[in-house]
Automatic annotation (TrEMBL):
It comes from Linum tenue. This is HD domain-containing protein. Coiled coil: none annotated. Signal peptide: none annotated. GO terms for molecular function: dGTPase activity. The lineage of its organism: Eukaryota, Viridiplantae, Streptophyta, Embryophyta, Tracheophyta. InterPro entries: dGTPase-like, HD/PDEase_dom, HD_domain. Residues 10-148 form the HD domain.
Length: 410
């Protein structure tokens, strides 16, 4: 493991979001806007949404949703938010939980509030309540507050963002959660910290290499375990967690040999070898087409090795400020001070020239599945970059990697 203190599971995180959602609701009620009064029912609903917002995640979190499932869904859509709704209904029915139907309905709406399916019209006019856990308007929510602090501590890295100042600055104006104008750059720090965590932690080259191996193992074990089919049945889905790799490892059925061997390679640190990476030029971001192993193979020139698709793994990491190529700060509502009754937005260019004009990165990484193929794959990938973009990345080369010796192989 690269970061042994970090986990994919969401239990502790869900408790944290539950707590912070309640804290925000209580703070907003303390400065009670008569037009949008916050009742005890509202606070209970927001906390419930925080507790359950990630219950629809599969094993290995986003890796399962974005890399494994698309191989089997034949273009059908699936999201952990929608699965969370199915799981909530299943749990309530299965365990005969006595809960007000309206509370459950609103909590489920809050869970999907940031997705394209999350359009909601509250008859009470309290739209801001739907932005506390999963904010579809500008991305400032307690979900990020919790996981940025929690993950940075678990991974032993610093975190420049502290949510306390923002929580103290929150107030409701015009059914929007607003912040003091002087805290504008504090909000930007939330987004920049998230981007940095994605760059250095969540999409770490070694981490992504292990995730690719886990996806390959799950793919080879899918028929034996019915992994992809489980997403259609909450009664089966709840049984899926990160222990699926252990179940593969100890299952001696002959048809699982390839999957079992991959899990053993992960245990033994016989990993897919990182060859190189490049950032997609900004002028190509809007029209970028995913790079495939076939693209790399077609770029191979003279070599003693003939590469095949199964020799190469490609990972594309998208890093942004939560809104793709758009800047979420443009959707942020501000007030002049605590006593203001009006809210407003500020164009990014009027705040600071340090705020980026381009709000998205795409990093393409290529791996060789066998150590002896690193040089051939690296050269083919370099040819692909030169042919496609006219430039090549200046990063780790196979020769440099061979000469690099480490006491701990992180």
């Amino acid at each position: 493991m690269v970061y042994p203190g970090a986990v994919h599971t969401r239990f502790e995180h869900s408790l944290g979001v539950y707590h912070l959602a309640g804290e925000v609701a209580y703070r907003l009620r303390a400065q009670q806007d008569p037009e949008f009064p916050i009742e005890d029912f509202d606070i209970k609903t927001v906390k419930l949404a925080g507790l359950l917002h990630d219950i629809g995640h599969g094993p290995f979190s986003h890796t399962f949703e974005r890399q494994f499932l698309p191989l089997f869904l034949n273009g059908a859509s699936w999201s952990h938010e929608d699965m969370s709704i199915s799981m909530i209904d299943y749990i309530v029915d299965k365990h005969h939980i006595d809960i007000e139907p309206e509370c459950l309905k609103k909590a489920k709406e809050m869970v999907v509030a940031s997705t394209e399916h999350g359009s909601h019209n509250s008859p009470t006019g309290k739209q801001f309540l739907y932005d506390i856990v999963a904010n579809g308007r500008n991305g400032v929510d307690v979900d990020k507050f919790d996981y940025l602090i929690r993950d940075s501590r678990a991974c032993g890295v610093g975190c420049g963002f502290m949510f306390g100042r923002l929580m103290g600055s929150m107030r409701v104006l015009g059914d929007e959660i607003c912040y003091r104008a002087k805290d504008y750059l504090t909000v930007y720090n939330l987004f920049s910290t998230r981007a940095e965590m994605h760059r250095t932690i969540y999409t770490h080259a070694k981490v992504k290499g292990i995730e690719l191996m886990a996806v390959d193992a799950l793919t080879k074990a899918n028929e034996a375990f019915g992994i992809a089919d489980a997403v259609q049945n909450p009664g089966e889905f709840w049984k899926l967690d990160d222990t699926i790799l252990k179940r593969i490892e100890v299952d001696e059925r002959p048809e699982l040999k390839e999957a079992r061997d991959l899990v053993l390679r992960i245990r033994r640190r016989d990993l897919y070898q990182f060859c190189n990476e490049f950032a997609v030029p900004k002028e190509n971001l809007d029209h970028f087409k995913d790079v495939t192993p076939q693209d790399i193979i077609c770029s191979q020139r003279s070599s003693d090795v003939t590469l095949k698709e199964e020799d190469i793994a490609v990972s594309t990491a998208k890093i942004d400020l939560t809104r793709g190529s758009s800047n979420p700060l443009e959707s942020l509502f501000l007030s002049q001070d605590y006593d203001s009754t009006d809210s407003f937005t500020i164009p990014v260019e009027r705040i600071s020239h340090l705020v980026p004009a381009v709000c998205q990165d795409k990093i393409v990484r290529v791996y060789a599945k066998k150590p002896e193929l690193v040089e051939a794959v690296s050269q083919a990938f370099e040819n692909f970059q030169m042919t496609t973009y006219g430039v090549k990345a200046i990063l780790a080369t196979p020769e440099k990697k061979k000469n690099r010796k480490r006491l701990f192989p992180y």
